[in-house]
Structure formats: C-alpha cells, structure tokens
Amino acid sequence: MKVKLSSKDALIVVDMQKDFMPTGVLPVPEGDKIVPSLNEYIKLFEAKNLPVFFTRDWHPENHISFKDYGGIWPPHCVQNTEGAEFHEELYIPADNKFIISKGTSPDFDAYSGFQGTQLEDLLRERGVKRVFVGGVATDYCVKNTVLGALNLGFSAVLLLDAIKGVDLSPGDSDRAIEEMLTTGAVGAEIKDLTT
Hints:
Blueprint: E1 3-4, E2 9-14, H1 35-47, E3 52-57, E4 97-102, H2 119-125, E5 130-136, H3 138-151, E6 155-164, H4 172-183, E7 186-188, E8 193-194
Parallel strand pairs: 1-8, 2-3, 2-5, 3-4, 5-6, 6-7
Helix pairs in contact: 3-4
C-alpha cells in the first residue's frame, strides 16, 4: 500500500536516547539498528519541509518510574546526563524540528509523547492531521504515542521498519503492533512512502 506524504503530515521519532541503546542502562535490543531507517525518514520529511518531532524521556533524579521510588525501571534518561542524549548518529535537522521532553515531573510518568507535553498543541498549530511514528520502545512509548495520537483524532502511521521493542515478556512487541493496528494505525515501511 502506497502512502503519499502531504502538507498535513509530521514525523515523530520516539526516545532514541543513549540509555535505551544496547549499551545503555535500559537497553532496547538492537535499538541502534533502526537509526539508519529513522534517518531516511527524517531526511525525507526534511526535504518536504514537514515538521519532525523528537520525543525524549527527561526525568528528574527522583522520578516515579525508577525502582527506588516505586517504579519498575532502573534510573534512566536523567535530565542533563549523557544517557539522556540522543544517539550520536541520529540525524537532527537544523530547521523545523522540535524536541519534546516527557516525564519531567517527579510524580508523573509519561509513556506517550502527548502526556504532559506541548506535542498536541504544536501539531494542531501546524495543521497536522497525520503522524508517522518510529523509535523505541515498540511496546511502551511508541505504542502509547500512537494510541495517544489516535485518541486525540490524528491519523497514525506506524513505521514498521523503524521500531524496536523491549519484550520484557516474549511477544510484547508483536502484541503492541497488533493493538496499534487494530485500534486504527496503518503500518508502513520506507518503500511505501511516496512524495
């Protein structure tokens, strides 16, 4: 199925941060392997002058998601640490790009790029109707960002060749993909996009 890009489209790159890469404290297996695919999408959107949004976990040291504070995760993506930085090979355009920080409050967790952020407002200001979503992790922040977009009335395209999951339980990523698609997202790969 071909997907034609329009002026109503935006790209959301989810949480491609060092702490989520294979050498990080909360590794997504092969999370670094999707950087080239994401860069292709980013450059395609840049060439069409379409906005690109980069979400990131940006946690305080005492964040509710951390084990010491009642959560299930080790400390990760703490504000202003190296682990919170984007993967060094991720392409960040000079223009028309937005950094969306989530999970910035100690007592509020956010798996979706829309929770407690300006993402929805920024998309609506630009007349965006459809979002293309890739990044990590398929079964957590990618899933919740896609479902959040659908709940808010955006169309969503899941970039099947530019996502990786954690799979704490075997099959979590496959189940997450199925949930996103049955909820209304469309799956696509770079070969499906036309300009």
